[in-house]
Design brief:
Blueprint (H helix, E strand, L loop, with lengths): L14 H16 L10 E6 L5 H9 L15 E7 L8 E8 L2 E7 L5 H13 L10 E7 L5 E5 L15 H13 L4 E8 L8 H9 L6 E6 L9 H8 L10 E3 L5 H5 L4 H14 L4 H5 L5 H41 L7 H24 L17 H18 L7 H14 L10 H12 L3 H27 L3 H33 L7 H14 L12 H6 L25 H53 L1 H5 L6 H25 L3
Parallel strand pairs: 1-6, 1-7, 2-5, 7-8, 8-9
Antiparallel strand pairs: 2-6, 3-4, 3-5
Length: about 675
């Protein structure tokens, strides 16, 4: 391979303004921050044989891998740094990460870069023609290159070559999409002049993620290969009259294979390119307009990248601060790891259990907890509110089951029961056993919503207590399982006790009893509405009859006011009138009974599944702390947790470093 002369006169007269911004992003990316936030970059894409490698060679002064098929098999980050001193020798370095280990080796001269990149690609992607998404970084420092960072991606393949996976084309597209869809990325789309630009996949992919072309810069290559007479079409593209991009297009002419074989230097190639455009009948106008030449392209890319970095700094600062706070929170929840000294280990266990108990007690009281359970549908912060909502739904369901005086099917049921159970009673005496039986039968319907509420609250408690255990003991699988097992056993015990308490409430309700003044008041109001005039019935039914459990004749003996019917209505039978009156009393009674149940059922559930359960869990956990010999064995940290802590600590360091680096820029 011929040596490459790297003395490119790509002077950038604003080094002091450009370099700090490019250095900032390079350093952030080198520290791995691109794993946490989106960083501004220039990404180079193009179809196979579009001239992408030649374009990068012309800008960087290094010879990249060449050949047929897919040459770039890994993303290649090309970091160019212009030395301020003219006599500084060329320096190159390859870096990448393999199996979590940093690999680094120097490159002696620009002509050896191609082989060095191939070596790194083979190490990461294998010696076949497959690709890898692992990033290779090539650092180049020279006095003759621009300050610029580019990311080169594999050329878009349409057909798989021998030895390549059949879906290689889609693999490459997926890799390209991963980079170009980021909003801070400038897309450098390389397109040859001698093809229909509308058919190039590179430009089509760019348009999919950048519909208005606001972050795409087009590069037209191989102008010497276009057919005579088609120059006008190329000029229309360069002048942004066709396939418009807001950043426009630049046309370049790089060395050909014959030039390389003859040993033509890149400096000579750029001089030859300049003469070509200056003297070209059609392209000399765009050269004067600064739309042609590698020098022009390099300057534009530096300007565009720096502008993108400047615009991104405010959002970068905010993003880094947000992720820094979240990482600190995650590390705090992970803890510092188990100390090895016996005394400190015991203290560590005691604190661990104490913090868990504290959060369990706060959860039961509806207070804020020490940990945030953000991944749950219900957080510990809102458990009490969720339980209260479940109780509200119970109250709504029970109130909807309130019998009404206009319920014709219920009236018919009562009337039939009165007829069937009629004994020695004189006419107009209310049959109390029927009234009591109807009340008890209707009460059975309230069991279903009460049981459903109990089950719902039990599931809420299980969900939150399990999540609390995970949050506090996620690093200690044995301890986590032990705590969860004890809590589940206790929860089932108290769920059963709560169910028995609810059964007791319904057993008491079957006594059909009330001294509530609401009942008397409601009955009186309903009687007034029923009668046409405000006179008591001759055999008034008093609440004391419900209390005593048998019917008594009223002490008054006034005349019943007759009820008049319309001309077409049949007079109501005694049973129908009695059924209406009984339903009126039943409705009045259920106003009291429902008021009792919507309070007593939630109180029973809360007593057992919140208060008593928390007390039992507290006692059990305190017992574990009181007998540490067995409990300390459960403090063995699983490898995944140790690895996650190390990852978070590393992430915290790079975020803190990024925060310091960004603070220098206003």
């Amino acid at each position: 391979m011929a040596a490459v002369d790297c003395s490119l006169p790509l002077s950038v007269n604003y080094q002091e303004k450009v370099r700090p911004f490019i250095d900032l992003v390079d350093e952030l990316r080198a520290n791995g921050l691109d794993r946490d936030v989106s960083l501004p970059s220039v990404v180079v894409i193009g179809d196979q044989s579009a001239g992408k490698s030649s374009t990068l060679e012309a800008i960087s002064g290094v010879q990249l891998p060449r050949g047929s098929g897919i040459v770039t098999r890994c993303p290649l980050e090309l970091r160019l740094k212009k030395s301020q001193k003219k006599d500084v020798p060329w320096k190159g370095c390859i870096r990448y990460v393999k199996k979590k280990k940093d690999v680094r080796f120097d490159v002696d001269e620009p002509g050896n870069v191609g082989d060095a990149v191939k070596k790194a690609q083979n190490d990461l992607a294998g010696t076949t023609n497959g690709i890898s998404d692992s990033l290779i970084t090539l650092d180049v420092e020279s006095p003759d290159i621009p300050d610029l960072t580019l990311i080169d991606l594999p050329g878009i393949a349409r057909i798989a070559a021998e030895g390549q996976p059949t879906d290689i084309g889609q693999q490459i597209k997926d890799l390209i999409s991963k980079y170009i869809q980021k909003k801070d990325t400038i897309i450098l789309a390389v397109v040859p002049c001698n093809v229909d630009i509308a058919t190039t996949e590179a430009l089509q992919m760019a348009q999919e993620v950048d519909a208005d072309g606001s972050r795409t810069l087009g590069v037209l290559t191989k102008p010497d290969l276009i057919d005579p007479g088609t120059e006008r079409g190329v000029l229309q593209i360069l002048n942004n009259e066709k396939y418009k991009l807001r950043k426009g297009y630049t046309i370049i002419k790089c060395r050909g294979q014959m030039d390389i074989e003859k040993g033509m230097s890149l400096e000579e190639a750029m001089d030859k390119e300049q003469s070509y455009f200056k003297s070209h009948e059609h392209f000399k106008s765009v050269y004067k307009e600064k739309k042609a030449g590698v020098r022009t392209l390099a300057g534009r890319l530096s300007t565009e990248l720096v502008g993108q970095i400047k615009n991104s700094i405010p959002s970068l600062k905010e993003d880094v601060k947000t992720k820094l706070a979240a990482t600190r929170q995650d590390l705090q929840l992970m803890g510092i790891g188990v100390p090895q000294e016996p005394d400190r280990k015991m203290l560590f266990l005691t604190d661990l259990l104490r913090h868990f108990i504290d959060d369990m007690q706060k959860t039961a009281k509806g207070e804020l907890t020490r940990v945030r359970l953000t991944k749950m549908k219900r957080t510990s912060k809102h458990l009490f509110g969720d339980v209260r909502d479940a109780f509200k739904r119970l109250a709504t369901a029970m109130n909807k089951m309130m019998p009404v005086s206009t319920n014709h099917s219920m009236l018919e049921e009562i009337k039939n029961a009165i007829v069937e159970s009629r004994g020695r009673e004189l006419p107009r005496f209310m049959c109390y056993p029927v009234c009591e039986a109807i009340i008890r039968e209707h009460l059975q319907k309230f069991r279903e919503p009460a049981s459903a509420c109990l089950q719902e609250v039990s599931e809420m408690v299980e969900s939150v207590s399990t999540a609390l255990s995970t949050a506090h003991f996620q690093a200690f699988q044995g301890l986590d399982w032990e705590i969860k097992g004890k809590m589940n056993e206790l929860r089932m015990k108290h769920e059963k006790m709560a169910g028995e308490a609810v059964d007791q409430i319904f057993a008491m309700e079957h006594l059909v009893f009330t001294q509530d003044s609401i009942f008397i008041k409601t009955v009186t109001e309903m009687e007034k509405k029923r009668n046409k005039v405000a006179h008591p019935q001759p055999f008034a039914f008093h609440a004391t009859q419900l209390q005593s459990g048998f019917s008594q004749p009223a002490q008054t003996s006034t005349t019943e006011v007759p009820i008049y019917h319309g001309a077409n209505e049949s007079p109501k039978t005694d049973e129908e009138k009695e059924a209406e009156k009984m339903l009126m009393y039943i409705c009045s009674y259920f106003k009291v009974a429902i008021r009792r149940m919507v309070d007593l059922v939630p109180m029973a559930i809360s007593l057992h599944l919140l208060n008593n359960l928390t007390e039992d869990i507290t006692s059990q956990v305190n017992l574990m702390a009181a007998y540490p010999d067995q409990t300390l064995k459960l403090l063995e940290e699983d490898p995944d947790s140790a690895e996650r802590r190390a990852m978070l600590e590393e992430k915290l360091k790079r975020l803190m470093k990024a925060n310091q680096d960004l603070a220098r820029f206003n």
